[in-house]
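Milestone M4 deliverable, item 7.
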Amino acid sequence: MTNVDDSSATIEDVDASGWNTFSFGLLGDDDPADRHTYERTVGVDGSNTTVTLNDETTNGSSAFSDAMDDKDSGDLIHGASTGVNGTPVLAFYQSADSDIVDTSTDTYAVYDANGNGEWTFELGDDYSDATSVDLYVSSQSFTSVDSFEQADLNSLFIDKADMGLYSLGSNFGWTSLGSFSLLEAIGIGMTAPAGGLSLAFLIPAGRRRLGGA
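Output delivered:
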């Protein structure tokens, strides 16, 4: 288990004017909770590792409760985001959906599995030789994290979670579709090359790699 508190988290004020119908609520609702982001390096024993991140921050539970958006157990989480070693991983509410992930071999995260607002990371085969990993959790959407690459988001949500264009738009917001490949999202079965056709040419979405490169 690893703990995060106000001194080890990044807590940012969220401007209510930026809150819109494509994210978590309607304009005019109560102000959203502050955005909470946690980045921790923890020691692990390869893929035989479950890491529980205990949130001890002020109002952290409110930030993530807002992001859950009335989820049922097993639902994919879109309004908050998780990553391991700079790469996004699928996150589920309370329990993983075994139709989407192989709980024996895949890496994924679960929020509130024990009913107390904790994040649990299950490390899969990709980390079989790992002795440490960098964990990332944020109360902002996957498509709002600048360091997440389009190819990795495609792999998770289009390929593994089998989400099409409508599902991506309705869950992440239509203005966020530039984070995904247009060709893959409409089911053509190929990824647009770098600089090629994608929704990014319609909706610019600047991306940067983790580390600022």
